Amino acid sequence: LALYPNPSNGESALKLERSSQVTIRSIDGKTIDQQQYEPGTVLLPVMAPGTYFIFVKDEHTTQALRWIIQ
User: Fold this and answer.
1) Which residues of the chain have pLDDT under 70?
2) What pLDDT is attached to residue 55?
3) Residue 32 in contact with residue 25, Cβ under 8 Å?
4) Who has the most CB within 10 Å: 2, 49, 58, 59?
5) Burial label, 25 (beta-carbon count in 10 A; 0-12, 13-18, 19+)
6) 0.85 exceeded by pTM
C-alpha cells in the first residue's frame, strides 16, 4: 500500500496490492468518497486543500493513511 505524492497539490495515486474498499473522509469524519478497487494504481479524486483520511479495507485488514493537500 502506497500513497504518493503526499503531501500533494491535489492529485495523488494510491497503489493497492489487493482488492480493497477505499473510503476518503474529511478531517471532521464526513465520508467524501467510497469505492471498491482491484489491485493496481488508483488515481484519487482532486480535492480542495486540507487534511483527509483514507481508509483501505481488504479481506484481512483496515489501514488508515493521512492525506495532506496543500
Assistant:
1) none
2) 98
3) yes
4) 58
5) middle
6) yes
How many angstroms separate the CA atoms of 30 and 6, rounded? 21
Chain-centroid distance, C-alpha 27: 13
**Adjacent-strand bridge partners of 19:** none
Tell me which DSSP letter residue 49 carries.
Answer: S
Neighbours of 18 (CB within 10 A): 13
CB distance 52 to 23 below 8 Å: no
Cell, residue 7: 503531501
Q: Which pLDDT score is estimated for 10? A: 78
